[in-house]
Design brief:
- This protein is α/β, with parallel strands linked by helices.
- It has one domain.
- It is built from twelve helices and eight strands.
- The chain has helices at about 20-30, 40-50, 50-60, 70-80, 90-105, 115-125, 145-160, 170-185, 200-205, 210-215, 220-225, 230-255, and strands at about 1-10, 10-15, 35-40, 65, 105-110, 135, 165, 190-195.
- The longest helix is centred in the C-terminal third of the chain and has 29 residues, at about 230-255.
Amino acid sequence: MNKGKYKILKNTITACDYTYVLQIIKQTIKSRNRLLVSPIASQTLVRAYYDQKIFNALESIDLLLPDSQWVKWSIWFLYGVRLKKRVYGPELMKKICELSEKETYPIYLYGSTNQVLLKLKERLLQLCPMIQIVGSKESKFRDLNSKEISELISQIYNSKAKILFIGLGSPLQELFSAEIAKKNIQTNTPIAIISIGAAFDFIAGTKKQAPRWVGDCGFEWLYRLLHEPKRLWRRYFSCGLLYLWLVVLQKIDKKNEK
């Protein structure tokens, strides 16, 4: 199901479901193209609103998906388009791994730490025993220089992976996926690049994931804030309130245009 594309703040969100994303991934690999996918949260849209570099990175993504309930609700509030479910990063990663097992797509994992990656691989192999994980590399938790970026991208493409999961956190992962896409123009390698955020930690079990009902109610942010207050309080309170305000302003602008 694809209900179209809608502008939220400054960026364009694809209002679709998991099935549609999986279909596009299959089509992309079959046609030997590249695809950028990112489930996006409200705080990243706020940062992109004020930061041109982040905005450009998000605009380069083919499928920018409503990861949070707040983004999903914003599509309804602004455009009257209702989605049954958000496209939640950890759930999307599991579904893509199931597809990869069925279609024998090799997978590469980039981000987090070696400890998390080891646990993540173990968990993915439990979920999908025949999955092919052809490579992984931990994040250096800093900006890579041009040489390091080139070496990493070459390593990813040389692995012949068809699916690349990036778990750097947003917007770093979207910025990095844009770099990979530039290299892909030269290599013409069929690949789906999925920016997946905290899914690495949640699936690996190294961080607690909010119960499904909490996420469905739109309070996953509060659950995560209670577990990581020092790291997340500024992100959720400042960006969260600002996001709501900017969406309301967008609604007012839409009414004035009529």
